[in-house]
Design goal:
Layout (H helix, E strand, L loop, with lengths): L17 H24 L6 H5 L3 H13 L1 H9 L3 H7 L9 H12 L5 H25 L6 H31 L4 E2 L2 E2 L3 E5 H5 L8 E7 L14 H17 L10 E2 L12 E3 H10 L3 H7 L3 E5 L1 H15 L7 H20 L12 H15 L11 H7 L8 H23 L12 H10 L5 H24 L17 H9 L4 H10 L5 H12 L2 H4 L3 H20 L3 H14 L5 H8 L1 H13 L1 H9 L10 H4 L5 H13 L6 H25 L4 H31 L14 E6 H4 L9 E7 L15 H17 L10 E2 L12 E3 H10 L3 H8 L2 E5 L1 H15 L5 H19 L3 H5 L2 E3 L7 H15 L12 H10 L5 H24 L4 E3 L4 H15 L9
Parallel strand pairs: 4-5, 4-6, 9-10, 9-11
Antiparallel strand pairs: 1-2, 3-4, 3-7, 8-9, 8-12, 13-14
Helix pairs in contact: 1-4, 3-7, 4-7, 6-8, 7-8, 8-10, 11-13, 14-15, 14-26, 15-19, 17-19, 20-24, 21-22, 22-25, 24-25, 24-26, 24-27, 25-27, 25-28, 26-27, 27-28, 30-31, 30-32, 31-32, 32-34, 35-37, 36-40, 38-40, 40-41, 41-42, 42-43
């Protein structure tokens, strides 16, 4: 039965949408006809009669809803009887209660016998409820506004989560049993809602951000299998995600995002309360504090969830006034702004200028800064938190009176955009018809009028955002007078300049400053500097609170004058980033570590001044003085990058650099503390470089293959990338120092005549050349955190004149027929540091072949000696320096390079018969192998190892103290004599300057 032509009134709709409505009316006729035919076959009443009986006001609403929302139109055509069901239940005019929805879903789930049936029930239930929510949002019956819509979507998500979880628990109880009891009741999964779900303010097409937890460890009981709680709740969590997120013939219920859990995708899906508490206490990052602001139990054991959140509250809300939060929010917004500019997302109403996120930042700033003291702010709802601000004197009421409706307007616009297709987006539509539909949804006469309103709203929001984020709070937390040490008042008086010069110098002399006058002058210059004078009041108050503690800490150090000169540049560097001043003020142990490290090493002081973010590392002495092994380094870097959007290369580059700087700081700190042997220092520095190279290769490979596809491979040759990075020099020899660059060679083994298989194919050689260029760019590009490493590619075949990336066969051919002896010497220290494992094994075979070939010893000896003299002439100490009794640890006769050349000569001369020498690329193990194979007397082998370690130790210390690698010759006379003696015996020449 066809609907009347005037069934859908068009008088209230823009003329531009009349054609759309006519097309929808035809589709609706067809859907109703099919439904009637099916009902007739089943001897039931069809829906058409009920549709025709709709009241005139309801038809007007129907026309409006269909004109705006494809989701609503598709749903009604697929399930035409739902409209009458929703109307009969009054669901088109008022949201059903959570209890009613819970009862409805439970009744439907009773008939679900397997997971497929359960998923079907949940998806259809969600779709029906969403139809009612979209209808109410577009028609706005009394009591319905944006907040009501957001609350309805949130309640629906919670009902679906709880219903699916309860069904899964019961369904799998026979097999898995029930978790052990806690306080007399079986434990249940704790489901924490994060983000807008936690706030109870979901938008129409939101993902739901979740964290899963369980109270106590134990095992299940009463099932066919006894499961550890970790395994049980992990399985249950996986099932719950699938129950909502999996795409079936009925679509999905809610997209589930678990990345906010500890360690993101790299961490356990479910955590016990104790593990979560330990994680957030020891490893929790600033962004996780923001995330936890919205955390709320939404399903499972909600009471236990409240207990968990109570235990985590000190992590989220700091006991002191956390002024650093503003700086962090500003940095987060800057990151978003970069993303917006890079992607051309200026019109994004969430991330763009004056968007949804800026209102959220305003509220979060006050929650993080004052939530620890003003507990009224410890609420998840943005709306409730916003209403709390005037009473606390944090925002004027007129500002809140503007922010709330402006935020609601943006959220209404977001809902209208998402209602078009039930798709998560905040981008303004570009299609003219879609724009008319959105304008209709917001009761605007047309798109230009909507845009004019939007621009007004965004302008007001940006003004309030700038005022809050740019201007610090008026109050700071001051330590009680009784908490200060007796001498802090004197230091405070000195810093403020209220003492006379004689008293200042007397205080400094008494505290151990050798040049009290110079120290007083330096402090006065800082106090009167333009940088300090121009600080905002709150920033100056932080500086003023820190300086007495800083001066007292300097006085406690072994060299106050030295520490003063090294720490003040750092202080001057963070005057405009005063979160770091708060960090030091609130963490006296960090201040103590700062004094210790800066007193020991000007290099560390310079690193901290150049990269103040490294001050965070001072908060955890356990990791500061304990460098991580390679596996932990890889895990930490993967987790750090996992928190960054995959397409945000700028942030990834910055994260890589901060990671590298922080890990090198750990090594240097352990070196200063004497906690690591020399060889371990080089090992750790090499691990850092290897982990960075592996990640950089992965980033470069992903970047190239996304555009061009994967290169064509040789038939039958296994491998992941057909590409390797070979480390030479100190990297290959596992002997990196603090300032070492990376000597690299790139090798591939793909089909030489092949092409890539992507949308923009290129020849394999071009692909690998671009891959090599990309790797170098990622390593050397300068960001605010500096560069990762300097890279030297001159050791590749034919040097700078050769290909940037060499095929393995060409590399082998070059080494066999064209390479100079010095290039074979360099090959001794070569090893694969990143890339395809199978290709790496083939490279090792080529290396062994080349190094293990028999050579004419006289010619070899002549070439090695000739190269050594050439290096010494260009790089060694001058004659005048030698006459003055100075010795270059690296280049002079009897130094480090002599030992390296002896090892290289041994490999080239002896490995044809002593294959064990081919295994290693580092000098220490080569010397051990020479001894073990009786190629070198034990006494001499040990002496060479001792000399090499002594030289390297001295060069490491010179780097940390910014000293020279020239030392008094007498200090290393015994080492030099031994090295020269072995050199003379092996190489057949006396080193004339050995005694100089």
């Amino acid at each position: 039965m066809a609907l009347p032509d005037d069934f859908l009134p068009r008088d209230d709709l823009p003329r531009a949408l009349h054609t759309r409505l006519g097309q929808l009316s035809q589709r609706l006729d067809e859907a109703l006809s099919q439904a009637d035919n099916l009902a007739e076959m089943q001897q039931q009443e069809g829906p058409s009669a009920s549709w025709e009986a709709l009241s005139a006001p309801r038809r007007v609403q129907l026309a409006r809803v269909l004109s705006v929302s494809d989701f609503a139109a598709d749903t009604l055509m697929r399930y035409p009887d739902w409209l009458m069901q929703l109307d009969a239940a009054d669901e088109l005019d008022a949201p059903p209660s959570a209890d009613a929805q819970t009862e409805w879903l439970a009744e439907l789930l009773q008939d679900a016998k397997d997971e497929a049936a359960m998923q079907r029930v949940v998806r259809r239930f969600r779709r029906a409820r969403m139809l009612g929510i979209v209808w109410r949002d577009l028609t706005r019956p009394p009591g319905i506004d944006m907040w009501a819509t957001a609350g309805s979507v949130s309640r629906l998500a919670e009902v679906c989560l709880e219903g699916a979880l309860g069904w899964l628990e019961a369904h799998h109880a026979e097999r898995w049993g029930w978790p052990a009891e806690r306080d007399g009741e079986p434990q249940r999964l704790v489901v924490l809602g994060m983000g807008k779900l936690g706030a109870g303010e979901l938008n129409l097409s939101s993902d739901i951000d979740l964290i899963f937890a369980f109270p106590d460890k134990g095992t299940t009981q009463g099932g066919k299998r006894e499961l550890d709680h970790q395994e049980y709740f992990t399985k249950l969590g996986q099932k719950l995600i699938g129950a909502l997120d999996a795409v079936t013939a009925d679509g999905f219920a809610f997209r589930v995002d678990m990345r906010l859990r500890p360690l993101g995708d790299g961490g356990p899906l479910v955590g016990s309360f104790s593990s979560l508490a330990s994680y957030y206490q020891d490893q929790g990052r600033e962004w996780e504090r923001y995330a936890m602001l919205k955390a709320r139990p939404v399903a499972g054991d909600r009471q236990a969830g409240d207990e968990l959140l109570a235990s985590l509250r000190p992590f989220v809300y700091r006991r002191y006034l956390d002024f650093g939060a503003i700086e962090s929010l500003r940095e987060m917004k800057d990151m978003i702004n970069r993303q917006v500019r890079r992607k051309g997302m200026d019109d994004n109403i969430k991330l763009g200028r004056g968007g949804i996120r800026e209102v959220e930042f305003v509220v979060q700033a006050f929650q993080l800064i004052r939530g620890g003291r003003d507990t009224e702010l410890q609420i998840t709802s943005l709306r409730q938190a916003l209403h709390t601000l005037p009473a606390l004197g944090l925002l004027p009421q007129p500002v809140v009176d503007e922010l709330e409706p402006d935020y609601a307007f943006l959220r209404d616009l977001e809902h209208a955009i998402q209602a078009l297709e039930d798709r998560q987006t905040q981008a303004l539509p570009e299609d003219d018809e879609e724009r008319e539909r959105v304008a209709l949804a917001l009761d605007q006469p047309d798109w230009p009028a909507l845009m004019a309103r939007l621009n007004e709203v965004r302008g007001r929001i940006r003004g309030h955002f700038d005022a809050v984020i740019a201007d610090p709070e008026d109050e700071v937390e001051e330590a009680a007078d009784g908490d200060d040490e007796p001498d802090l008042d004197e230091w405070r008086g000195l810093w403020r300049g209220i003492m006379d010069d004689d008293d200042i110098q007397a205080l400094l002399r008494g505290a151990g400053f050798a040049d009290a006058a110079a120290a007083a002058k330096r402090l006065a210059a800082l106090r009167e500097s333009r940088a300090v004078k121009s600080m905002q009041r709150i920033g100056y108050e932080r500086l003023d609170a820190l300086m007495p503690m800083l001066l007292a800490a300097m006085a406690d150090s072994e060299a106050p004058d030295l520490v003063l000169e090294r720490v003040l540049p750092l202080l001057e560097g963070v005057l405009r980033r005063t979160a770091y001043l708060a960090l030091l003020r609130e963490n006296p142990q960090a201040l103590s570590h700062l004094m210790r490290l800066c007193a020991a090493s000007p290099w560390i002081a310079e690193q901290l001044a150049r990269h103040p973010i490294l001050l965070d590392e001072l908060l955890t002495p356990a990791t500061l003085y304990t460098p991580a092994d390679k596996q932990h380094l890889a895990d930490e870097l993967r987790q750090a990058l996992g928190r960054i959007p995959e397409d945000d290369e700028e942030a990834q580059l910055e994260a890589l650099r901060v990671f590298k700087h922080a890990q090198v700081l750990h090594v240097a700190a352990s070196d200063i503390a004497g906690a690591r042997a020399l060889m371990k220092v080089s090992d750790f520095l090499t691990y850092i470089a290897e982990v960075v190279l592996e990640q950089v290769l992965a980033m470069a490979w992903k970047h190239l293959t996304r555009k061009h596809g994967r290169p064509q491979r040789r038939d039958g040759v296994p491998g992941d990338t057909d590409f390797i990075i070979v480390g030479y020099g100190k990297l290959g020899g596992i002997e990196l120092g603090y300032g070492s660059d990376l000597d690299l060679v790139f090798i591939h083994d793909a089909a030489s005549q092949g092409t890539t298989d992507g949308p923009r194919p290129i020849d394999n050689p071009v692909f690998f050349t671009r891959l090599g260029q990309r790797i170098i760019h990622l390593l050397t590009a300068v960001t605010p955190a500096g560069a990762l490493y300097e890279v030297d590619m001159r050791l590749r075949p034919s040097g700078n004149a050769g290909l940037l990336v060499t095929p393995l066969e060409a590399f082998a051919d070059y080494q066999r027929h064209q390479a100079w002896t010095w290039e074979h010497q360099a090959l001794v220290r070569a090893r694969v540091v990143a890339g395809d494992r199978h290709l790496g094994e083939r490279f090792d075979a080529v290396r062994s072949e080349i190094l293990g070939a028999r050579r004419d010893l006289a010619s070899l000896r002549e070439e090695v000696v000739k190269m050594r003299h050439k290096m010494r002439d260009h790089l060694g100490s001058t004659a005048s320096a030698r006459q003055a009794g100075r010795f270059d640890l690296k280049q002079d006769a009897g130094g480090m390079v002599d030992i390296e050349f002896l090892c290289q000569f041994a490999v080239l001369a002896m490995s044809a018969d002593t294959r064990e020498l081919l295994r290693w690329s580092d000098n220490m193990r080569l010397l051990e192998t020479l001894e073990a194979c009786q190629r070198l007397p034990a006494e001499e082998a040990q002496g060479l190892r001792d000399a090499y370690l002594a030289y390297r130790h001295a060069t490491h210390r010179a780097a940390l103290t910014k000293g020279e690698r020239m030392v008094a010759a007498d200090e290393v006379a015994a080492h030099r004599e031994l090295v020269c003696r072995v050199w003379q015996r092996w190489m057949g020449e006396a080193e004339d300057d050995a005694s100089a």
